[in-house]
């Protein structure tokens, strides 16, 4: 009876081990798409958008929390860039990404938490920094492989909540 129970308990463990061995490895394209998303994430954490326009297609579209922001270049120059100048820090946590590659297109869904440290208001009498802003966010992106073989974001939509 004891050997039967041991054998019975071993079946699910063996099944999981077999599934892990047969799970497909990430393709080179999936790895490249993840790298593009990571580079963008790192730029935001550095509070510097320098060079990030190469991660986006020239005719990209950015949507943020219910607003159509236009191309990435417009978004970076008129929204994201000025906003980052008001931050003392920006950190992501609990980041997860799902990527599906389909020919020259890739579809990504990112979930994460983030914390924004704000600089003190230079006009305020008290120079203490405001409390950090903590949010949960989600982003969906469509990427396309360009003629040079580089993945670029064509469309990005993100939103956040407390």
TrEMBL record:
Pfam families per UniProt: SnoaL_3
Domain SnoaL-like: 33-159
Classification via InterPro entries: NTF2-like_dom_sf, SnoaL-like
Keywords carried by this UniProt record: Signal
Membrane-spanning segments: none
Signal peptide: 1-20
Protein name: SnoaL-like domain-containing protein
Taxonomic placement: Bacteria, Pseudomonadati, Bacteroidota, Cytophagia, Cytophagales
């Amino acid at each position: 009876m004891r050997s039967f129970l041991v054998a019975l308990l071993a079946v699910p463990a063996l099944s999981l081990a077999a599934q892990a061995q047969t799970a497909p490895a990430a393709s080179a394209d999936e790895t490249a798409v993840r790298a593009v998303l990571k580079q963008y994430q790192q730029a935001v954490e550095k509070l510097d958008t320098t060079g990030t326009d190469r991660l986006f297609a020239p005719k990209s579209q950015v949507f943020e929390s219910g607003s159509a922001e236009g191309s990435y270049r417009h978004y970076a120059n008129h929204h994201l860039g000025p906003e980052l100048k008001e931050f003392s820090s920006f950190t992501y946590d609990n980041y997860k990404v799902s990527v599906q590659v389909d020919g020259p297109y890739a579809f990504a869904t990112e979930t994460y938490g983030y914390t924004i440290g704000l600089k003190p208001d230079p006009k305020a009498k008290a120079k203490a920094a405001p409390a950090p802003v903590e949010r949960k966010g989600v982003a969906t992106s469509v990427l396309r492989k360009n003629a040079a073989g580089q993945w670029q974001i064509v469309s990005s939509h993100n939103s956040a909540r407390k």
